[in-house]
């Protein structure tokens, strides 16, 4: 039996625990959880019927250990448990700004990085995966199986993780932010459209659009609606003209923040 551990039962750690158990990827009796404020881990353990303990015990018991704390807390968690993180164990970090090199320099365990999305909580999230040099083919199969149970795992180059996580991990927030503005503007056009109604309608439209996009490319779907010389084409032209600058600024802003977080974490491998 493989034993699994999750250190950090905040948003991501608790979502992974719940979904892995609910979808049968991990059995209840195989999972241990811990958290800095222990009552949070105990509450989750009671809810899921798994076991809660402190970081050391969870690290000791686990063959596969998910590290689900924020990047600034990760170094401390690994320092606390490093003696137990032997080459027989696989650690899987979900922290965006903590490199494989840093993970591998702090302990002897095999390492992988996995960046899921809140959409994984609906079984529909992309998880970006990067496997360390010590990870085996069995490790690759295992992480693909686990994250495959909650959506679509994709192995990527580590240097692409930052940009791609803007698309997949931050994506649900950005898509929501854009559509919220779209609905708000509709409610301000002077036609008496209620803002909540506009939001409900655009949410339903998003769900329908997502279903269509299972089969259609963006270009084909745009062409299906924005017929030549029609009204939608006028709106699509505005988006094409104005959004490149918005997305350029978005990536510049997130890139600057990634640099800041990395500076705060420091060069831990040195
Ligand atoms: N949220 C997302 O959509 C998302 C997506 C992809 C990746 N991630 C990554 O997931 C990680 C966690 O993010 P989150 O959103 O889940 O943050 P969060 O809700 O703040 O959860 C972090 C958890 O870590 C616990 N913790 C902190 N230090 C600890 C320690 N020394 N020992 C044990 N537990 C400790 C915290 O406990 P307390 O209750 O005591 O504060 C908290 O419950 C981050 O690295 C983030 O980059 C998040």
Automatic annotation (TrEMBL):
One of its GO terms (molecular function) is pyrroline-5-carboxylate reductase activity. Its EC number is 1.5.1.2. It catalyses: L-proline + NAD(+) = (S)-1-pyrroline-5-carboxylate + NADH + 2 H(+); L-proline + NADP(+) = (S)-1-pyrroline-5-carboxylate + NADPH + 2 H(+). NADP(+) binds at residues 7-12. The keyword Transmembrane does not apply. Pathway: Amino-acid biosynthesis; L-proline biosynthesis; L-proline from L-glutamate 5-semialdehyde: step 1/1. GO terms for biological process: L-proline biosynthetic process. Keywords: Amino-acid biosynthesis, Cytoplasm, NADP, Oxidoreductase, Proline biosynthesis. It comes from the Archaea. GO terms for cellular component: cytoplasm. Residues 4-96 form the Pyrroline-5-carboxylate reductase catalytic N-terminal domain. Its main location: cytoplasm. Residues 158-254 form the Pyrroline-5-carboxylate reductase dimerisation domain. Catalyzes the reduction of 1-pyrroline-5-carboxylate (PCA) to L-proline. Belongs to the pyrroline-5-carboxylate reductase family. This is Pyrroline-5-carboxylate reductase. It comes from Methanothrix soehngenii (Methanosaeta concilii).
């Amino acid at each position: 039996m493989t034993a699994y551990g999750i250190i950090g039962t905040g948003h991501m750690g608790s979502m992974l625990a719940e979904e892995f158990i609910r979808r049968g990827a991990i059995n209840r009796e195989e999972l241990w959880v811990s958290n800095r404020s222990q009552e949070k881990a105990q509450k989750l353990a009671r809810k899921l019927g798994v076991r809660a303990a402190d970081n050391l015990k969870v690290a000791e018991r686990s063959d596969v250990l998910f590290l689900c704390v924020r990047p600034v807390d990760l170094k401390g968690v690994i320092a606390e448990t490093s003696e137990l993180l032997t080459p027989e164990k696989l650690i899987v970090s979900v922290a965006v700004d903590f490199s494989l090199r840093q993970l591998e320099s702090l302990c002897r365990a095999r390492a992988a990085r996995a960046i899921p999305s809140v959409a994984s909580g609906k079984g529909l999230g992309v998880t970006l995966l990067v496997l360390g040099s010590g990870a085996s083919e069995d490790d690759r199969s295992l992480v693909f199986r686990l994250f495959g149970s909650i959506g679509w795992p994709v192995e990527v180059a580590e240097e692409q993780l930052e940009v791609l996580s803007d698309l997949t991990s931050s994506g649900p927030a950005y898509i929501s932010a854009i559509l919220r503005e779209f609905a708000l503007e509709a409610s301000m056009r002077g036609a008496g459209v209620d803002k909540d109604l506009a939001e409900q309608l655009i949410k339903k439209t998003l769900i329908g659009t997502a279903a269509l996009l299972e089969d259609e490319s963006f270009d084909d779907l745009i062409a299906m609606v924005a017929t030549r010389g029609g009204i939608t084409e006028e709106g699509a032209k505005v988006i094409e003209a104005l959004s490149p600058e918005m997305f350029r600024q978005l990536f510049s802003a997130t890139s600057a923040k990634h640099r800041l977080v990395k500076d705060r974490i420091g060069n831990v491998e040195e």
